[in-house]
């Protein structure tokens, strides 16, 4: 790492998966906050999202895989804190390659933590998912961090297993662990994705003037990708006794929507004529309405961007021609 004139750098952070949709935003945000940031990424979706960071004195990159001990060792050298985002992300991607998904998301995560502990890392922040709540028993109520976890996909099952391991060891270890269950992300990122609900629906309605919606009645919580970065920065900066060994949902209670409501919101904002087809989908029963009161009351975190803001943001990228080839596989996991 180099030194940036006029900035006092207090911590060095490893962001695994830092070339990804969330990671590329988190890396930029932490650099802006004065951290030394090292990214480890296997670049399965390319490294274009990192190109704007190479001129930063406090940026470092390791092309590596969480399944490889040598890569992990090289990445952890001189690191104070780990933000673990690297994963085969999402239910479809994990279902296509279940063995790889387990090796990366479960075994790789556990190995990374063990080696971080052995190398003297002080904090380990794990990016989990609100998908862990699965299907709510009572959709008129909200689930919270103490609610039963009901994972119904390999992706969520692996996340729950890693959570359990981290929370089991948190009370008897020198390394502080924090689990962040992220709502479904939206918004513009250097590694843009159009397979996330808000981004995808906005693009389909504006570009293709058609959208097929499966399970319009199902609830999901949503959070802007920059607010995820803000939550991670907040956790890294707070005293260990406030965040160590704890779980926080990351999002905003007001940003819970049914899929059909997201469609209505997009149509009201972009004012595009589009053919919308609704398909009942009972075989994918994920349905969860999430409370984010703990992170608000305990840590003082509130989201700064709403789903409406995200729709306008994505619509601007489309209208202004910043992205044109929406069928490019780069924009999907």
Protein model, in words:
The two termini are 31 Å apart. Helix 1 (23-32) links the parallel strand 1 and strand 2 (36-41). The strands form 3 sheets. The protein has a 7-stranded parallel sheet with strand order 3-2-1-4-5-6-10, sandwiched between helices. A 3-stranded mixed sheet has the order 7-9-11. A two-stranded parallel ribbon has the order 8-12. The chain is built from 11 helices and 12 strands. With 333 residues, it is of the alpha/beta class. The longest helix has 21 residues, at 98-118.
SSE blueprint:
Blueprint lengths: L11 E5 L6 H10 L3 E6 L17 E5 L5 H8 L4 E4 L6 H6 L1 H21 L4 E7 L24 H16 L6 E7 L1 E3 L10 H12 L1 E5 L4 E6 H13 L2 H4 L2 E5 L5 E3 H12 L4 E5 L13 H7 L7 H13 L14
Parallel strand pairs: 1-2, 1-4, 2-3, 4-5, 5-6, 6-10, 7-9, 8-12
Antiparallel strand pairs: 9-11
What shape does the CA trace take? globular
Radius of gyration: 19 Å
* Unreliable residue stretches: 2-9
What is the terminal separation in angstroms?
31 Å
What is the share of helical residues?
25-40%
Enumerate how many helices there are, as a single number.
11
Going by helix content, strand content and strand pairing, the class is alpha/beta
Largest sheet: 7 strands, parallel
Strand order of the largest sheet: 3-2-1-4-5-6-10
How would you spell out the order of helices and strands? EHEEHEHHEHEEHEEHHEEHEHH
Quantity of strands, as a count: 12
Strand content: 15-25%
Mean pLDDT: 93
